[in-house]
Specification:
- By secondary structure, the chain is α+β, with helices and mostly antiparallel strands.
- It is 18% helix and 37% strand.
- The protein is built from six helices and 31 strands.
- The strands form seven sheets. Strands 3-12-15-14-13-16 form a six-stranded antiparallel β-barrel. A six-stranded antiparallel sheet has the order 22-23-18-26-27-31, with no helix packed on it.
- α3 runs antiparallel to α4.
- It starts with 19 loop residues before the first helix and ends with a strand.
- This is Membrane fusion protein.
- Keywords: Membrane, Transmembrane, Transmembrane helix.
């Protein structure tokens, strides 16, 4: 019997042929994948483009008003009614108010006004101005001021109605035989009907606690109100001179130390003016600013606190963010150790070097980052061409200088070339977010330079990856 043939087929496996091209391609692919991965994972440096500009350092303050104020008190009990509006000027002998011991005047006033109460255009304008000023300066943190304004407006409306009615009641009161006493001003001045126990204080008696508005209270007297004998009836401001005292930071004390006047703008009124400026010591030993005026007193007759801004001149230069600014230490080298050939082909410093043949000199050209009248500032980093302990030789002299002394310089990191280069700055002015620095300075910045936005994200000269 014949044997069957084995028909099992075994596949032939080709050998893996790896050539040089495949190896190179694999290496390139691996490098690109690693680069993309590290790029995605790496913190990127944000930059800021330097622009021309300036900072207006308008500083907001709350001040306490001090005036020459005299509080006048009643000499009997009864219903009080006013003849003069708040903020109006009274001459000697002007009728200010009357005291009605029987209530007759209040009854006649009610009958006289009835439901036909109307305010003059002047009165309405005054109320509108006060509401507008309040709305522009109101802050939710001081919500209690809403009640103060409501009380003031209520008092004003009642005062306007009462004053106008009182002017027309003289003949009626005489016919009715009303038992009332008229009180006239014993001095010239501006009338106010609110008191707060601060009338007798002087600017030098101020303390920091007085600026806490939540602890401040004032009271006012309304027409028709029943008052006791010896109660405050009104106060008289007898001088046009008045002052504002405000708190100052140490920076402001230094900034305004040589000033004799300041320009300011009052919140809510649009009033801009200048005032004589001085610094005083308060009762608590603190330093306070004092602004003196001789006009506009009537506009703030009902206020003890006032919000304002101190206006300063805009300083022009280069505007950069504060976050970009840092300081670096540099070696300082006397300027007279610097050498330069007549054609400028060789310049730098002669450094002393040592060999088997003894000491000699070599010319090095380290980067100079700053200069003043006495020194050049050289890089003190690890990659610096100059090291601590090196001796520099003055040209045509045996005088030597050992490198080692350092000074700090304020500046930013320039990244125009793809790596950080320190550039020094000269700060002209600042606020919470920006500096204005001098432009056109040696070793400094120029318009449109790109600088690292956050100086803490880099360290010294080096390649950077930025976006």
């Amino acid at each position: 019997m014949a044997k069957k043939k084995n028909k099992k087929i075994v596949r032939y496996r080709r050998p893996l042929n790896i050539n040089v091209g495949m190896i190179i391609f694999a290496l390139i692919f691996a490098y690109m994948a690693f680069y993309v991965y590290t790029y995605a994972r790496r913190d990127k440096i944000e930059f800021y483009e330097v622009v021309e500009g300036g900072i207006v350092n308008d500083q907001r303050h709350t001040g306490i008003i001090f005036r020459n104020e005299e509080v006048k008190y009643t000499d009997r009990a009864g219903n009080i009614n006013f003849y003069l509006q708040e903020g109006k000027r009274a001459a000697v002998g002007t009728r200010i108010y009357s005291i009605d011991e029987t209530g007759t005047i209040s009854q006649l006033l009610a009958e006289q006004t009835g439901d036909s109460v109307s305010l003059s255009s002047e009165n309405l304008s005054s109320l509108q101005k006060e509401l507008s000023s309040f709305s522009q300066t109101f802050q939710e943190t001081n919500f209690r001021e809403v009640y103060d304004v409501k009380y003031t407006l209520d008092s004003r409306v009642l005062e306007y109605v009462s004053v106008d009615a009182m002017k027309n009641l003289d003949s009626i009161l005489e016919e009715a035989g009303a038992n009332f006493t008229q009180v006239r001003s014993d001095a010239a001045g501006v009338v106010s009907y609110s008191v707060d126990s601060m009338e007798s204080l002087s600017p030098t008696q101020v303390t920091a606690d007085m600026f806490d508005r939540s602890q401040y209270t004032k009271t006012g007297v309304r027409s028709g109100q029943l008052v006791e004998s010896g109660a405050p009836a009104y106060k008289l401001i007898t001088s046009e001179d008045w002052s504002i005292v405000f708190q100052m930071t140490p920076e402001e004390i230094s900034q305004y130390g040589d000033k004799t006047s300041l320009s300011l703008k009052f919140d809510g009124t649009g009033l801009e003016t200048s005032a004589a400026f001085s610094m005083i010591t308060g009762a608590d030993g603190g330093t306070y600013g004092k602004l003196d005026f001789n006009k506009y007193m009537e506009q703030f007759i009902s206020d003890r606190f006032v919000d304002f801004e101190i206006l300063t001149d805009e300083v022009q230069g280069l505007k950069i963010p504060r976050t970009a600014v840092t300081t670096m230490n540099f070696y300082i080298v006397p300027r007279d150790f610097y050498v330069s050939s007549e054609n400028g082909s060789a310049s730098g410093f002669y450094r002393e070097v040592y060999s088997e043949n003894g000491p000699s000199m070599e010319l090095i050209s380290p980067t100079i980052y700053n200069a003043d009248e006495e020194y050049y500032y050289l890089d003190a980093g690890e990659s610096s061409e100059v090291k601590a302990g090196d001796y520099l030789i003055k040209a045509d002299s045996q005088e030597r200088y050992q490198v080692g002394a350092m000074e700090a310089v304020e500046g930013v990191f320039n990244i125009n070339r793809g790596y950080t280069i320190f550039r020094k700055i000269e700060v002209l002015s600042s606020n919470d977010e920006f500096y204005t620095v001098a432009k056109g300075t040696d070793y400094g910045l120029s318009v449109y330079d790109h600088i690292v936005l956050d100086a803490s994200s880099v360290s010294g000269n080096g390649i950077v990856l930025y976006q």
